[in-house]
Amino acid sequence: MPLVEQTRARTQELFQQLLDRHGVGSRIEVKAFYPPAGGSQLRFVDESLAWEPGMELGFGYWINGEWDSTSWPGCFAVEDDDRITKEDLVYPFTSKPEHLGLWSIVEEFEDLLPPEQLTKVLRQDHYWYEYRNLAGPAVASTGYGLVAAALAEATNGVIASFDSAFDIEHNGESAQKFLTWWGEKQMTFYGTESFKKSRIV
Q1: Within 10 Å of residue 165's Cβ, how many Cβ atoms?
Q2: What is the pLDDT of residue 77?
Q3: Could you tell me where the beta strands, DSSP code E, fall in 78-180?
Q4: End-to-end alpha-carbon separation of the chain, Å?
Q5: Are strands 66-77 and 126-131 parallel, antiparallel or unpaired?
Q6: Other CB atoms within 10 A of residue 199 CB
Q7: Is 18 helix (H, G, I), strand (E, B) or coil?
Q8: 33 — phi, psi (to 5°)?
Q9: How far apart are CA 106 and CA 134, in angstroms?
Q10: CA 88 to chain centre
Q11: In DSSP terms, which residues pair with 44 in a beta bridge?
């Protein structure tokens, strides 16, 4: 499993490269922390911490030293509830008998990934998921895609969204392919002004 610090540092690097390509002129910092309980202070993640199933973290985005917003990546185990059961084979469900017992994500990926890659995905016992707020802040709404890319890059994984974070045609992309369009689309949608200073300032 990759280190959280590896994910954090690569996300920051990708974000800064994006800002620099567009001549934004601001400095981005990404900090990984544990979700605060009640009114407690932020507790930042140790650099030696590796991802593991059940881990949910905050990735905070600071622009020019001022906090702007946060995205919320988590690592989860593939559990029995995630697998196709006999009930999924009968109306009104449409699962295939040959998928019985498999991770249900097979139905999203079977026509997108080569068989060998699909088999590798289905062997996994964990996955990452990003909690997403509809119409969230520009910085966090760009950052969570870069977190996904950093994780996919580190694990040779694929990226997908099933809640319209991006067009379904991009599901199953590698980090390399995802990065050819994600940042540019966000910049076009939000405009560079959204990244020049913290929205909290």
Answers
A1: 17
A2: 97
A3: 126-131
A4: 37
A5: antiparallel
A6: 15
A7: helix
A8: -145, 160
A9: 26
A10: 28
A11: 33
For residue 73, give both structure tokens. 């990546």
CA proximity to 59, closest of 115, 132, 112 = 132
- Which bin fits 91, alpha (ψ -120 to 50), beta or left (φ > 0)? beta
Strands 66-77 and 58-63: antiparallel
Q: Which residue is it, tokens 């407690």? A: 40
Provide φ and ψ at 125, rounded to 5°. Answer: -105, 10
Amino acid at 7: T
Bridge partners (DSSP) of residue 69 are 61
Residue 140 near residue 68, CB atoms below 8 Å: yes
The length of the chain in residues reads: 201
Tell which residue, 196, 154, 197, has the closest CA to residue 175.
154
3-state secondary structure of 21: helix
Q: What confidence score (pLDDT) does residue 136 get?
A: 82
* Ordered mean pLDDT values, 10 residues apiece, the chain (201 residues): 97 98 97 86 93 97 96 96 92 89 92 92 94 82 96 95 81 94 96 92 65
Taking the C-alpha atoms of residue 122 and residue 197, their distance in angstroms, rounded to an integer, is 42
Q: How far apart are CA 148 and CA 178, in angstroms?
A: 9
CB 190 within 8 A of CB 128: no
